[in-house]
Amino acid sequence: MAAPAEKHDVFKAIADPTRREVLRLLSENERPISEITSHFSMSRTAVTKHLQILAEAELISGRKEGREKIYQLHPEPLNEVKQWLSYYEKFWSNKLSILKNLVEEDGDS
Amino acid sequence: MAAPAEKHDVFKAIADPTRREVLRLLSENERPISEITSHFSMSRTAVTKHLQILAEAELISGRKEGREKIYQLHPEPLNEVKQWLSYYEKFWSNKLSILKNLVEEDGDS
DNA sequence: TAAACGCGAAACCAAATGGTTATATATTTT
DNA sequence: AAAATATATAACCATTTGGTTTCGCGTTTA
């Protein structure tokens, strides 16, 4: 079953600095929306929209807990970016990249 | 002298699939604009705009040669993405990532 | 039970994005 | 010199993006 035409791909998701900061925050801890919002100078509604985009890219997920919605990180989709990048690494590679590429052959599946 | 607030960062530059395809094309060969355009179903003007965004991110550069403008790839700025990604790799890492991270310690500078 | 909290959803807005067509200019080519 | 080629630039357009404010609703807490 191939990917069903994802609405927001991971490349677009990480293109925004606010969203990258959200990812960093969630890499430390899972957090409710209000807590995430407190780290930015924008409204909770705006932050929620960023969270939705990240969730559509499956980089985060949220669970409802009481009146809070707690989001956590799922970094796996970043692997697509990593794979894409690996193609270009050979172009600016230093001497170690041959070994690194060999190591990465294992990667997925 | 720090980076002078780049107008288009590399994350935004690679967010668009057309621009990623341009990078792939230029990874094979340097090419004039018309040649690049022939690979897409959009106007030369539209392609030129993508080229400008990639050039602002310093991922490509163009030189004028006769009446043609020939673009070539400069993949080095992708290193910023790689660095960013490396922080998250530890979260989904398989057993090999420890070795890989050690290897990459050398990386830049 | 009333007030405060956390969130969702809708309506709205300005600016950026990704595209178009038209026109002009410099360089070959015939 | 005239025609064709390759590009640049400007004006325009629709949609997306990133933000806002407002209102309503379930969940705690006083």
TrEMBL record, chains A, B:
It comes from the Bacteria. CDD domains: HTH_ARSR (cd00090). Keywords: DNA-binding. Residues 1-93 form the HTH arsR-type domain. InterPro entries: ArsR-like_HTH (IPR011991), HTH_ArsR_DNA-bd_dom (IPR001845), WH-like_DNA-bd_sf (IPR036388), WH_DNA-bd_sf (IPR036390). It holds the Pfam family HTH_5. PROSITE patterns: HTH_ARSR_2. This is Winged helix-turn-helix transcriptional regulator.
